[in-house]
Amino acid sequence: MKKQVLVIDDEPDIRELLELTLGRMNLETRAAANLDEARHLLQDFEFHLCLTDMRLPDGNGIDLVRHIQQNHPHLPVAVITAHGNMETAIAALKAGAFDFVSKPLDLNDLRNIVRSALKVSQTSAPIPERVGTRELLGESPAIQKVRTMIEKLSRSQAPVYVSGESGTGKELVARLIHELGPRASKPFVPVNCGAIPEQLMESEFFGHKKGSFTGAVQDKDGLFKAADGGTLFLDEVGDLPIHMQVKLLRAIQEKSVRPIGSQVEIRVDVRILSATHKKLHELVGEGKFRQDLYYRLNVIELPVPSLRGRPDDIPLLAEALCARLAKTQGIKVPRLTPEALDAISRYHFPGNVRELENILERALTLCDGGDVTAEDLQLREEPQPVTAQATHPEFSGDGSLEDYLEQVERGAIEEALTKTNRNKTAAAKLLGITFRALRYKLEKLGIE
Fold first, then answer.
1. Which residue, 61, 334, 358, 404, shows the most beta carbons closer than 10 Å to its own?
2. What's this model's pTM, rounded to 2 decimal places?
């Protein structure tokens, strides 16, 4: 049975062109000239893809995208926009559009979008913890939210900005978005923008022709060409110099690149995912990152929580990492003693999951095949205690000293609980008191 495509455009010539192109792809089409007709067709028939113009007599394409998101959430929608109107295209992607294509229509672009959209599964399934050899472990609400976002974003072609501290697993998240989406059979190409020498960046990204500069002894495909049909992951994108930001923006918007020394542009079909541990919006404010590129990359932001932001996941992660490291080293999986689990549960982990893995790798070497103890972990760095000076109110002399000290104590405890995401064990450590003492103070002060 042929797959069904809903085509919406008020121009008969465009509708005819779309129906002819889709018919040659062995697809069956139904056409509408406005939003009202489209909504009736959506009620009466089941579609596998929707192609809609942005400007319609009774509304716009974004209205339809929102209607479909609410009533037919698994139906991909591609929006047709006016040439060069990137703001409208980005608004459509933010509303939930699968992708966009600009007028005048490039039929190759259109076919690529149609093929990708039709690969998207029509059923919703929860993201698995493991895809291939990659894992997204944890049961905390924070990591469950990330899983839900990954599942949703894998069904789109919108650029995604993965934010979070170093070591939180931003590349893992990007890989999962790629591997659960319609581009999974094509390359996933990660690049650390901060690791490429500035003078080689243009060649690395866009390629070069033989003889185009000293040392160019043969033609070279760049990263965009290597990722053609797949996903290009720009890690540490905040490290790009301004002149490369300009060239990158053009390549993304035009969907084409020109190798150094070439007079011909090469069309590329690449989904862009990006990440950095820096605060990109602050770099924009400082003039170190172009605002237009920021809005083009940050169509949808996916924050990845820090490890201290999901402390309940730490024991599960530690045991899984121990098992993996033991397998790599060809040794029996060691047991983490209760004291060791308690120690890592109270540790601050400024380096997040990456630091946890490094600590455990060292501990497996030190434990000599036996149990991993708290001493084997060598957690030397202690979190800085919360000091009352940072938060205490000014003593006015109007009330009693006892009331004033209680207010200071309450402020210090609330600050510690906030910093540790309400983890009472970690908060007690941060305050430099025992868990029992903290529990007593919480009851005394009536803090939940």
1. 61
2. 0.77
